[in-house]
Every structure is written in C-alpha cells, then in structure tokens.
Specification:
4 strands; alpha/beta; four-stranded parallel sheet
Length: 275
C-alpha cells in the first residue's frame, strides 16, 4: 500500500512538473522576481485591472493566466520565481536565460535588505523550513543575501535576451502605484485602461484591504491566506514597509549585509548601493 501511495505521489509530482514547464513555454509575459519583492501586490493590481477593464468575473485575481483568451486579446501572463532561488546556494542559480528569448519579462526587485528580512519571516513563520535566528540567517548562504544579489545580477546581465524587459522596483510601485501600474499594463499590451479603472484597482489593493482579503482568504488561494490570524508575521502582507529592515538588522549583521551588497551588486541596481 505504501509503495502505491509513493507511486501516486511521484506521478502527481511528475505531472505538476510537466505543467509548470508547459506554462513557462506557453507564457507571453513572465513576471519574475526573487521571493518577497512585493510581486503578489503587483499581480493583484494587474488582475483587478483586467477584471475591471474587461468586465470579467474571477474570484482568484492572482491567477493571471486564467484571463488569457483569444477573443479578449489578453496575453498569457505567468508569474514565478524562476526556479526557486530561495532554496539554492548562489553558485547553484541558473545563469542560462535563453528560454526567455522572444518573450517579455517584467523583473521586479526590492531593496535586498528588506527582501532578506522578509524572507526570514517567510521561512520561519509561513513555510517553517528554517530554525535559526535572524543573526544566523544573515550569514546563511542557501537562499540568503548572496543568493539574492546573484539572482539580481544574473538577470541584470541577461536583460537583453527577452524580446522586451521591464525593470520594476517595489519602491517605485510604492511611491507612484497608479503611474507604475499604467506603465506595466502598457508593457503587457493592455491599451485604453481608464484612469477610473486604475484608481479603483489601486484602491482595492491598498495594504489594509489586502490584509483583510488574506485574513478571510477571500481569493480562495494559499498565495494570499494567513497561517495564523493572530500573528502578523505569518501573513503574506506582513508589513508592506520600505526600509523595514532597520527594525531587525543592526551592528555586525547590518554591516555584513551591506558589505555583500556594496561589493557585489550590479550598478543597474545602484539605488540599493550605499556609498
């Protein structure tokens, strides 16, 4: 019986792997980010905009690929983390991006310091696959600050491979949500979206409303559902704060993180380098 269960599990994983590969091949638009860069917020903004613009019904607005239909003229949009970099050593990250040739890529980044801190809470509170302290995690090589920086750098060096490449920062999206959303929609190829639609989408995706959506699991997806409603650190929408790392990193820990960033980060992301 155990052998049969294991066989079923293997078959299921194989099917899932094939589906993921097919979706990667099928996608016209790839929204790529290292985990904890704010991509869920971006995807919900896009999903709500599409729903409003085309007058569609959709409970799970985060499944952008479900909006793609020939008669809607909506491209197949797929969001992913490009191979699970949060579980890899920096030297294990894939440097070959040839599979993205002919596709459009939206590459979303965030201050690596904030990403590192948010990743720590993701791994200790949501996924529960790391047991060390924040001080330990600062020096963790598997999926730590070195992996974050190398992931950014690999994409920076390969940004000419896709047919078109849009670099989007969490900080810019935070500062001008409506303007950056309009920029993203135009890059995707969605034209004529009204100012009213943009305004409504931005309002829907306010942090407090996303927190409520997550608390009630309104979208019916684990991608936006709290692990423990009484512990904000288990929420996907944990804080939504720029520079929040300063509440957790200081002294030697912060010095180490900034040394890695300042010494290794591609100048493309110069806003995150402190001189």
């Amino acid at each position: 019986m155990a052998a049969m269960v294991n066989k079923r599990g293997l078959v299921r994983r194989t099917i899932q792997k094939i589906r993921r590969r097919w979706r990667r091949w099928r996608a016209d638009i790839h929204i790529v980010s290292y985990p904890k860069c704010g991509r869920t917020w971006l995807v919900l903004l896009i999903g709500k905009s599409l729903q409003l613009h085309y007058g569609l019904r959709a409970r799970n607005l985060l499944r952008l690929r479900s909006f793609s239909r020939p008669w809607r003229d909506i491209p197949y949009i797929l969001q992913h983390h490009d191979g699970g970099p949060e579980f890899l050593f920096p030297e294990e990250l894939d440097t070959d991006k040839s599979a993205y040739a002919g596709r459009k890529v939206i590459f979303m980044v965030r201050d690596p310091r904030d990403v590192l801190v948010s990743s720590y809470f993701q791994k200790t509170k949501r996924n529960v696959n790391y047991e060390g302290s924040m001080a330990d995690y600062v020096h963790e090589r598997r999926g730590g600050i070195e992996s974050i920086i190398r992931f950014y750098n690999i994409w920076g060096r390969n940004r000419q491979i896709p047919a078109d490449f849009l670099l989007l920062t969490y900080e810019d999206l935070h500062a001008d949500t409506a303007g950056q959303l309009q920029r993203v929609l135009e890059f995707i190829g969605i034209r004529g979206v009204s100012e009213a639609t943009i305004t409504e989408a931005v309002d829907y995706c306010r942090f407090d409303n996303m927190r409520q959506l997550e608390s009630s699991n309104a979208l019916g997806t684990s991608a936006l559902s709290a692990r423990d409603k009484n512990d904000q650190d288990t929420f996907k929408t944990r804080r939504g704060k720029i520079g929040g790392y300063q509440d957790y990193l200081e002294g030697e820990a912060l010095a180490h993180v900034e040394q890695v960033i300042n010494s290794n980060l591609d100048p493309l992301y110069s806003r995150y380098i402190k001189h």
